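haha ok so turns out i had the wrong file open the whole time. this is the CORRECT one, sorry everyone. sequence first:
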Amino acid sequence: MDLSGVKDEARRSFAPGDVGRELVLALPGRMDDYELDALFPTLVRVLREPSRERGP
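then structure:
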């Protein structure tokens, strides 16, 4: 699976330093479906949590 579109969206949607942005950008450019399936629950959990970098 090509993750370039996901990475582009992370660059547009999240501020530099945001935990979710950095996590997505750290992923490889391509992943097998089963690898992404294994990571998906963790990615969703991290992306839904408020960033630790943001203030109150």
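The longest helix spans residues 33-48.
again sry for the mixup
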